[in-house]
Amino acid sequence: QLRLVESGGGLVQPGGSLRLSCIVFGYILDDHAIAWFRQAPGKEREGVSCISNKGGTTKYADSVKGRFTISRDNAKSTVYLQMNGLKPEDTAVYYCAADRVPWCGNDYDPNRFDYWGQGTQVTVSE
Predict the structure, then answer these.
(1) Cα separations (Å) of 69 from 41, 47, 111?
(2) Which helix (H) or strand (E) holds 7?
């Protein structure tokens, strides 16, 4: 049974940093790309970042480029999202999801991702 579990969320002041982790159970992690999404209250879920199966390709939404870094350690079945320079508009529930294919697509269509974690709350506030 495939399961993704996020952790690392919390409350942080503007300009601060957090590192999110996504551990994947029951799954051959290096067969699939992994993406991070986020959903703020009253807004649609949006793709934040993606990393290909071996980590050779990474993609970022324009809103987080230069501030967020995605990485993966397949030996630990874990994908990370390092978030620096956090802004209040980064406040959301963050989810990791497993793509059906090993590469990052040109978009973040949620229908392409079969497995999702339960989410971890990130709040950026004074």
Answers:
(1) 24, 14, 24
(2) strand 3-7
- The residue type of 6 is E
Interatomic CA distance for residues 3 and 64, integer angstroms: 26
Residue 74 in 3-state DSSP? helix
| Residues comprising the chain, all counted | 126
Q: In sequence order, what DSSP letters do the residues of 8-37 get, joined into one string?
A: --EEE-TT--EEEEEEEESS-GGGS-EEEE
Q: What is the pLDDT along the chain (126 residues), one digit of tens a residue?
A: 678 999 999 999 999 999 999 999 887 777 889 999 999 999 999 999 999 999 999 999 999 999 999 999 989 999 999 999 999 999 999 999 999 889 999 999 999 998 999 999 999 999
Q: Which backbone phi and psi does 76 adopt, to 5 degrees?
A: -100, 5
